[in-house]
Amino acid sequence: MRKKILIADDEPDIIELLRIFLESEQFELIEAHDGQAAWELIERHQVDLAVIDIMMPRMDGFQLIQQIRKACKMPIIILSARNEDVDKIKGLGIGADDYMTKPFNPLECVARIKAQLRRYYEFNDSGAGDADAVTSIGGLTLDHRACLLYKRGQPVALSATEYKLLKMFTDEPGRIFTKKQIFERVWGDTYIADDNTIMVQISRLRDKIEDNPRSPVYLKNIRGLGYRFAKREELDEQTK
């Protein structure tokens, strides 16, 4: 499976230059011209690495990185015309893994992208902490490092919101979460009775984890209360 790279930059020439070099290395590229659009792409796609400019409209690069780090641990490289030490320190301090300044050598940028992917997805495959890196329940395995779901061993891409939802449920199987609790935990904001937002994301998650989303086994609606993920013993009983 080709690694998917997000380029978030408001300069189209930068994106097109990187597209030429990244696609020649068999990477898949998605692009955004402002921070808010970049975040919306991350919510919809399984992004393996992000290259982010700082000075972007709607949501700047620093804000975007902070938003990403609330949801996912994927590698982030800042590519910016701002070359002051204070910007580099801030960017790395809030969660970026590398910092490059413009003008830049696209071959060096590709090399750094490969290095970050290698460090994150290959070097982290073994070692201490593996037990905490995944959650397995009823044929589902959630990889917390890659924010990736495996269903009976087959990879299933999750958006950032879907990952946060599934992690919340599988951390406490059997617990009933109210819509207010779900919204405040996953979206990190005060619940304003926006049932549709939760229902849409639950529906999308069910499409990925259930064999028959119309008759869910894992994630059930508890009428009048909220949603509940099945306990391990319940799932084991159904597979006997």
UniProtKB/TrEMBL annotation:
* Gene Ontology terms for molecular function: phosphorelay response regulator activity; transcription cis-regulatory region binding
Record's keyword terms, sorted: DNA-binding, Phosphoprotein, Transcription, Transcription regulation, Two-component regulatory system
Q: Which InterPro entries match?
A: CheY-like_superfamily, OmpR/PhoB-type_DNA-bd, Sig_transdc_resp-reg_C-effctor, Sig_transdc_resp-reg_receiver, WalR-like, WH-like_DNA-bd_sf
Picking any one GO biological process from the record gives:
regulation of DNA-templated transcription
Q: Which residues carry this modification: 4-aspartylphosphate?
A: 53
Query: Which residues mediate DNA binding here?
Result: 132-231
Location, primary (coarse class): cytoplasm
What is the protein name stated in its UniProt record? Response regulator with CheY-like receiver domain and winged-helix DNA-binding domain
